[in-house]
Amino acid sequence: MKRREFLKTAAVGAGAAALATPAIAQERREWKMVTAWPKNLPGPGVAAQLLADRITTLSGGRIEVKLFAAGELVPGNGVFDAVSEGTAELYHAVPAYWGSKSKGILLFGSQPFGLRADEQVGWLTHGGGQALYDEIYGRFGLKPFLCGNSGPQWAGWFREEINSVDDLKGLKFRTTGLASEMCAKIGMAVQAMGGRDMFQALQSGALDAGEFIGPWTDSALGFQQVAKNYYWPGVGEPSSAEECVVNAQAYADLPDDLKQVVSLACESLYNPVWTEYTTKHALALEKLVADEGVQVKMLPDDVVVAMGNAAGEVIADLRNDSDELVQRITESFLAYRKSVSAYMVYADNGQMNARAMDYKY
Questions:
Q1: Which pLDDT value is given to residue 214?
Q2: SS3 (DSSP) at 176
Q3: Mean pLDDT, residues 241-260
Q4: In what helix (H) or strand (E) does residue 131 lie, and over which residues does it extend?
Q5: H or E segment at 44?
Q6: How far is CA 95 from the centre of its chain?
Q7: Are 247 and 141 in contact (CB under 8 A)?
């Protein structure tokens, strides 16, 4: 290339670069993430920060997400409205908290005697659930994504031993979502509150029992200090999905590649979050038993059956809900549950039953 042509080309390239720089700068976005959790609470608080960091990193800094823990910008129970109204661009919480918005929302977080963590994401990804998830959140100007799961939760911490269904009558109990409706149907006095409030209520006697998540998160909140009877199985929440929900207009304003960044950041954290819960729950349970004197106990069979019957009534109520969309969500969930449950008899159930047999290994 001749020197004059080279200099001309270089000048054009430099000019284009100079023009491009302001456009790139203008494309940077600062997003506020509000959460339902104390900052860095083991489990959901940690997962929320991971998600904020991952969106920032995968976007190359074009979306810079700053996390505000519960109470820093809005209360934990106010994050849904804050993002719907545009006070913040996204939140991290669980669908189980939004039953006052629509009962249909609750099915996307957990269902009594419902889907496990892998089945929950299977329903959304392969069973038509995501379209329904989008539709119901769209009513509130929101775009939802699953971004983690606690795995099976526990039946809870009880100050006194449970021997029959009668022991649950009038019991002051903390839980959320559809599990609260199941418990109410068998006569429990259900209360909704955050984890720190649950500790104080157990300590003061305002609660007789309560469930939050599982050994890892629960031990960090100190429930073992005020209640020693730790019951399983947590049939009220066979899994509990965590969600990232974005203001729909903020999401629509993103270019296509940044929409993919948000979507893939959520999807990429589902398994790491779920498996971290599983791993650290197991380690925490060992310490609770060995070092804290916690008594791990199984719910009596008649309690589980009573809860199952109550859960069936809850689902029947949803099938007959006055909202046609809630009905469609419920039927989609039930169809997926029926199909996958039949298969799991041979698959995961078979493997777990075989692993529990008495042999040298």
A1: 98
A2: coil
A3: 98
A4: helix 129-138
A5: helix 44-58
A6: 7
A7: yes
3-class state of residue 89 by DSSP: coil
How far apart CA 136 and CA 131 sit, in angstroms, is 9
Number of H helices, E strands in the chain: 14, 11
Cβ–Cβ under 8 Å, residues 208 and 172: yes
DSSP for 261-313? HHHHHHHHHHHHHHHHHHHHHHHHHHHHHHHH--EEEEPPHHHHHHHHHHHHH
Q: Three-state SS for 91?
A: strand
What residues does 279 pair with on adjacent strands?
none
**Pairing mode, if any, of strands 142-149 and 172-174?**
unpaired
pLDDT surpasses 90 at 17: no
How does pLDDT run across 71-120, given as a tens digit for each residue? 999 999 999 999 999 999 999 999 999 999 999 999 999 999 999 999 99
Question: Both ends of the chain: CA-CA distance in Å?
Answer: 73
Chain position carrying tokens 């990232």: 244
Q: Are 33 and 145 in contact (CB under 8 A)?
A: no
With a CB cutoff of 8 Å and minimum separation 6, the contacts of 88 are: 31, 32, 33, 34, 68, 73, 74, 79, 82, 247
What does the pLDDT look like over 143-176, one tens digit per residue? 999 999 999 999 999 999 999 999 999 999 999 9
Q: Tell me the β-bridge partners of 148.
A: 242
Q: What amino acid occupies position 14?
A: A
* Contact assessment for residue 231 and residue 212, using Cβ atoms and an 8 Å cutoff: no
The neighbouring-strand residues paired with 91 are: 34, 245
> Residue 224 has what DSSP assignment?
G
- Single out the residue of 280, 284, 33, 27 nearest to residue 147, CA to CA: 33
3-class DSSP state for residue 190?
Answer: strand
Q: 63 forms bridges with which residues in the sheet? A: 29
The pair of structure tokens assigned to 12 is 């054009």
Strands 156-158 and 209-210: antiparallel
CB 86 within 8 A of CB 29: no
**What gap in Å lies between CA 356 and CA 279, rounded to an integer?**
19
